[in-house]
Amino acid sequence: MADIRQQRPLSHQVVKAATAVTAGGSLLVLSGLILAGTVIALALATPLLVIFSPVLVPAGITVFLLVTGFLSSGGFGVAALSVLSWIYRYVTGKNPPGADQLDRARQKLALKAREMKDRAEQYGQQNIPAGSQQH
How much is the pTM? Predict the structure, then answer.
């Protein structure tokens, strides 16, 4: 592996390093400009926010609640359609994802229910006094 690195020309490595430094420096300068612009905009907008806060805060809360309500409603609607689609595919026998796991779980539950029923019948037969058995 060391032989391969040594075989590359030095100019190739210099070009890679120069490109990395240029890109990194450009991004650093850009992030500094964005930070400065944000601070200036905040300094200019603060008086307006203080003056209009009695109107803006309730309006912001209202807008937040409306957006949250619509997004929640849409999300629950999509979830409901997905569930209904899955159920339809399962009932029609199209084997949707997870159907095999559901069938295995149903079989395990049915087996355990039968075992519990048999145990209850055995327990009931063992604990009923001889004179009080019903016919």
Answer: 0.47
The pLDDT mean for the chain works out to 87
Q: Contact 59/66 with Cβ under 8 angstroms?
A: no
How far, rounded to the nearest angstrom, does the alpha carbon of residue 28 sit from its chain's CA centroid? 32
Phi/psi of residue 48, nearest 5 degrees: -65, -40
Q: 50-80 b/e with 16+ CB inside 10 Å = b?
A: eeeeeeeeeeeeeeeeeeeeeeeeeeeeeee
SS3 121: helix
Closest by CA position to 111, among listed 99, 100, 103: 103
Q: Are 99 and 90 in contact (CB under 8 A)?
A: yes
pLDDT tens for residues 16-72? Answer: 889 989 999 999 999 999 999 999 999 999 998 889 889 888 999 999 999 999 999
- With tokens 């060391």, the residue in question is 2
CA distance 105 to 130: 40
